[in-house]
Amino acid sequence: MNEKSLAGMRGTLLAGILMLLTEYALGVLTQLYGRAPASDDGLSVFGAFWASVVDGPVLLTLHAIVGTLLIANGVTAVIRAIRLRGGGLIGLTIAAALCMLAAWGAGSSLVAGYGVVSLLIMALGAAAAIGCYAVALFRIPAPVAG
């Protein structure tokens, strides 16, 4: 494992944690101040996502976009872990990516009017992904000074 690859993995994980915390805050603010339009009820998951981005309140739009960027971050983390051949890192990044994907789907389901249990799935998905990324950061060897 070369230091450049390890530094890239550290950066990806840290960016993911910061994005997840931002997403969590956006989610809370969206629930307090930015409800989805009632016209979005009954849409498919992808239809609800699109409606959030195109026609949603600003907070909901930002929340949907950051959530989608998190999926890209999750895929990037998995690819980096595979390249590092780190078994534990691979497992942790896959778990985090799956948690983010579940949260993304739950968010779209909430916009489509499929129930408030989606709020719980989004919150737990974000928390679990943060935990996975934090543990993964500690599994990466410290940089060598010099």
Summarize the structure.
With 146 residues, the protein is mostly helical.
Which short descriptors sum up this protein?
transmembrane, 146 residues, 0% strand, mainly alpha, transmembrane helix, membrane
Description:
The protein is mainly alpha-helical. The radius of gyration is 17 Å and the shape is elongated. 80% of the residues lie in helices and 0% in strands. It has one domain (17-139). The protein starts with a helix and ends in a 7-residue tail after the last helix. The protein has helices spanning 3-33, 45-55, 58-84, 87-111, 117-139. The chain crosses the membrane at residues 43-72, 84-106, 112-138.
- The total domain count is 1
Distance between the ends = 17 Å
State the helicity in percent bands. over 70%
Secondary-structure element series = HHHHH
Q: Outline the biggest β-sheet.
A: none
Write the layout of secondary structure elements.
Layout: H1 3-33, H2 45-55, H3 58-84, H4 87-111, H5 117-139
